Amino acid sequence: MEGIAKTGASAGLARAPGAYVRARALPLPGAAYALAGALGVAVLLRFATLHLQSFDFDELQTVRLLRGGFGDLLAGIARDESTPPLYYIVAWGWCKLFGTGEVGLRSLSAVLGTVTIPVVYAIARELASRRAAIIAAALTATSPWLVWYSQEARAYALVLLLAALSLWLFLGAVREPSALRLASWAIASALALAAHYFAVFLVVPEAAWLLFAVRPQRRLLPALAGVALVAGGLLPLALHQRAQGHGDQMIRVSGSLPLRVAQLPKQSLVGYAAPAKFWVAALAGLLALAGLVRLARGGARERRAAAALAAITGAAVAVPLALALVGLDYVDARNLIATCVPLAILIAIGFSTRRAPGWGAAGALALSVLFCAITVSVAATPAYQREDWRGAARSLGAPVVARAIVLTPPSSPEPFAVYLPSLRPLPAGGAAVREVDLVAIANTLGRAGHGRALPSPAGLRSPAPGFHQIQVTTAATYVTVRFRSPRPVRVTPRSLARVGLQAKVGAGVFIQ
User: How far apart are CA 455 and CA 407, in angstroms?
Assistant: First the structure.
């Protein structure tokens, strides 16, 4: 589509949202090659390092759910999760083919993240130009934030794809509101809602726009009714999950609302960690801002397209912020990941404006190269990666004698049991063991306001009479300390919780 135009001669203020973009020719071979190149980079960044990192705590919860039967899965989603069921249902079938290991399970998100790129290309192509589409595809392919969540066994890559599809189909429905196009938008929007509740903040602005754009409005009613039906069906589950408090717990450990809001642009651009992260984030922010500023220098077509996209994106960010101020606070960069697609397209449109195109191309290239460098640095540096539950389990090895494990921070045994089978809570009455292992796992990246410092294993006292320290392992994201006794000694959860590596924050005490 060439640019946003009025829907008819009588279009006025009431019909302004009905602006649409005229159809364009098929992509030129050069654009197709550029898109293929972006896809190649995306595949390399997403798939080549799937095996490098351990599952983090949230992913371990996913694995635990997927290893049960389908009925157990549905019950677990309601009991233990704060997300709708679609990702888990898809992943449950996926893991039957590819397993629940890091590569097998994460490959689903990697596929979803890669498929998002041609959808982003199509949106930018429809709104602006081939140049904008190529830049948007490149930024999406290399984004450290999107690469990270294309390697995460959670719902984020799925909602990113479905929200992008919803936006693309929305644009088509505005241009030509046929029954098929409206139904397609409704299906994509309903699926996005079933993947992540925060998709509602993009779907509702699109629906409101369609209400203004489509005439007669009765043509739109079946599509809106379908989306509303799915949303209504998800509401009881959302309320039940909220009552369990899992979403609130995630927000509590992520810092204050002002801190989380301040981190939104940084994390959306460069992810959780990077070398010289302040300067890297500042450079990425300046480059992205340069793209946005260039929007004002674009032609009327670019400015109209940007205004439409900015209105939808702004609503998707502003509404959850407003809800947070009145007590419904779930603002987190992960939850807002679907807004990264329209933001990338806005930046791409700015870089692609015809005024001083060389500077725009240079800015887009610089930002893409910076994104790639950050992604590679994360892959090469354990301190920038997910907490290493797998490494901690390997450092302990298989049990050779009855042993107790004291885990900091405290947790239920099920997630760690993915790597340490047969791990279970130590009974309140205690048990006789010959080994006590102290384990400290660094906090999850993205816990706002917290560093990744680990406790020192120096100067630890024996967990019980007769135990002697025989091994210490210190890595970037975990510490393990092994104590052994020549004979079995009875220990209890109460006695061991006081000798963890971070006794002040408590510990989970298990037996294996």
Answer: 12
d(CA 284, CA 390): 32
Q: Angle at the Cα of 142 (from 348 to 201), degrees rounded to 5? A: 65
The pLDDT score that the predictor gives to residue 255 is: 83
| Strand ranges, E, within 8-115 | 20-21
pTM over 0.85: yes
Token representation of residue 508: 């989970």
**Residue whose token pair is 């790129």:** 117
**C-alpha count within 13 angstroms, C-beta hemisphere, residue 137:** 29
Q: CA-CA distance, 21 to 170, in Å (whole number)?
A: 12
pLDDT over threshold 90, residue 501: no
Collapsed DSSP state (helix, strand, coil) of residue 496: helix
Using pLDDT thresholds of 50, 70 and 90, give the confidence band for residue 252. Answer: confident
In this structure, are residues 160 and 201 in contact, taking their beta carbons and an 8 Å threshold? no
Residue 125, classed as helix, strand or coil, is helix
Q: SS3 of 417, please?
A: helix
Closest C-alpha to 265, from 385, 145, 113: 145
Q: 269, 288 in Cβ contact below 8 A?
A: yes
Q: Do the Cβ atoms of 208 and 227 come closer than 8 Å? A: no
Task: Give the integer Cα–Cα distance in Å for 146 and 267.
Answer: 10
CA of residue 245 relative to chain centroid, distance: 20
Packed helices 200-213 and 156-175: angle between N→C axes, nearest 10 degrees: 0
Q: Which amino acid is at 389?
A: W
State the pLDDT confidence band at 24, using cuts at 50, 70 and 90.
Answer: very low
CA distances from 270 to 32, 143, 364, 380, 436 (A): 27, 7, 15, 16, 40
Q: Are 202 and 339 in contact (CB under 8 A)?
A: yes
Amino acid at 383: A
Among residues of the chain, what percentage have pLDDT more than 90? 76
Distances in Å between the alpha carbon of 20 and those of 83, 128, 222, 341, 397? 34, 11, 22, 19, 61
pLDDT of residue 446: 55
- Burial class of residue 446, CB neighbours in 10 A (0-12, 13-18, 19+): buried
What are φ and ψ of residue 436, in 5° steps? -125, 125
Nearest of 263, 277, 302, 368 to residue 37 by alpha carbon:
368
Confidence band (pLDDT; 50, 70, 90) for 452? low
What does the alpha-carbon distance between residue 318 and residue 80 come to, in Å, rounded to a whole number? 28
**Rounded Cα distance, 39 and 202, in Å:** 25
> Hey, what are 471's tokens?
């091994």
